[in-house]
């Protein structure tokens, strides 16, 4: 995947305000599998190998506890002399590290499942090409040319698609919805819906749930927020704050700085390893992966994607973008 391939958004017509993607494109729910009352039911794919519980990632916690015990025993005879950058306890650091490794191992499991599945791999590679074009091209600016119709009918249709899973499972279902959809705002999501409708020549004949997964994956890939930087600044900024609070004997300020560092550490865990796992696990929500993959192959972002598929399987990993 060559970063110079920033021409995808141009081929998609996003830089031309007169392109259909920027016009008032009707979205017909009756054209979707779950939108029509007389539509055939979606045939679920039961070939996934990710249905069984894998306890491998959780083995990092007993291992970390054992290493933590050895470390504590060592420090008993060789106390630390250098000042610490954080007031986090040694046990907390080991648990954070164990969590990071466990999530990374779990993500690798999902990654292997995606690479082994041609349809899921196609969908994810298109999303990563979208992300590449966002980071190295002009896709984010080009999406600014897409105008979302103001009339209520189109907005209501888009809202129904986006929130099709919102009430699944009560409170936990809503939390899962925000976990999957919170990376892209509603306006960006709506723009991607219109772009995909235009590139696919009309409303795709997939279920609303699959349509939601596809749009959300593309919209989330367009998010270029530097979360790590915004979390690192308060984390390291709290270091002099802690030193000042300790030297002046201000307990409340010291507690605030310590709490801020812990919060930023947990935030990084969420926006980095957990988010990567979310991207891959989200693909398992697709009911008809073949239909979604065939839909995305029609877009300019899927040109010569066979080479990327071969490359992923040869290297055993997805592109690092």
Low-confidence residue ranges = 2-6, 17-26, 29-50
Q: Could you spell the SSE succession in H and E letters?
A: HHHHHHHHHHHHH
**What number of domains?**
1
- Briefly note the structural class of the backbone: mainly alpha
Quaternary organization: single chain
Number of strands: 0
Query: How large is the share of residues in beta strands?
Result: under 5%
- What is the overall shape? globular
- In this structure, how is the largest beta sheet organized? none
Q: Helical proportion? A: 55-70%
- Global Rg: 23 Å
Q: Whole-Å distance between the termini? A: 10 Å
Region (Disordered): 1-21
Architecture overview:
With 321 residues, the protein is mainly α. The chain has one domain (54-315). It contains 13 helices and no strands. Helix 3 (90-116) packs parallel to helix 11, helix 8 (186-199) crosses helix 9 and helix 10 packs antiparallel against helix 11 (251-282). The longest helix has 32 residues, at 251-282. The radius of gyration is 23 Å and the shape is globular. 31% of the residues are buried. Mean pLDDT is 82; it is low at 2-6, 17-26 and 29-50.
């Amino acid at each position: 995947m060559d970063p110079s391939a920033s021409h995808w958004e141009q081929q998609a017509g996003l830089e031309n305000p007169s392109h259909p993607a920027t016009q008032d494109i009707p979205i017909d729910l009756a054209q979707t599998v779950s939108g029509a009352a007389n539509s055939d039911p979606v045939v679920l794919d039961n070939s996934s190998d990710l249905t069984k519980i894998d306890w491998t990632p959780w083995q990092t916690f007993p291992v970390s506890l054992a290493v933590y015990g050895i470390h504590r025993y060592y420090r008993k005879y060789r106390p630390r002399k250098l000042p610490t950058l954080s007031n986090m306890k040694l046990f907390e650091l080991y648990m954070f590290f164990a969590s990071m490794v466990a999530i990374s191992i779990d993500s690798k499991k999902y990654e292997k499942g995606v690479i082994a599945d041609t349809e899921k791999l196609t969908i994810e590679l298109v999303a990563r090409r979208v992300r590449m074009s966002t980071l190295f091209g002009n896709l984010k600016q080009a999406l600014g040319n897409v105008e979302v119709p103001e009339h209520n009918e189109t907005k209501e249709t888009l809202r129904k698609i986006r929130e099709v899973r919102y009430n699944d499972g009560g409170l936990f279902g809503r939390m899962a919805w925000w976990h999957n959809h919170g990376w892209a705002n509603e306006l960006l999501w709506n723009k991607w819906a219109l772009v995909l409708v235009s590139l696919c020549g009309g409303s795709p004949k997939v279920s609303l749930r699959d349509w939601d997964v596809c749009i959300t994956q593309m919209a989330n890939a367009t998010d270029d927020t530097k979360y790590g930087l915004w979390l690192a600044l308060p984390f390291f900024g709290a270091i002099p704050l802690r030193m000042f609070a300790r030297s002046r004997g201000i307990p409340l300020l010291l507690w605030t700085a310590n709490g801020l560092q812990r919060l930023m550490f947990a935030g990084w865990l969420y926006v980095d390893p957990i988010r990567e796992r979310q991207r891959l696990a989200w693909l398992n929500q697709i009911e008809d992966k073949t239909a979604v993959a065939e839909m995305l192959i029609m877009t300019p972002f899927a040109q010569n994607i066979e080479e990327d598929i071969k490359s992923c399987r040869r290297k055993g990993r997805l592109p690092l973008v």
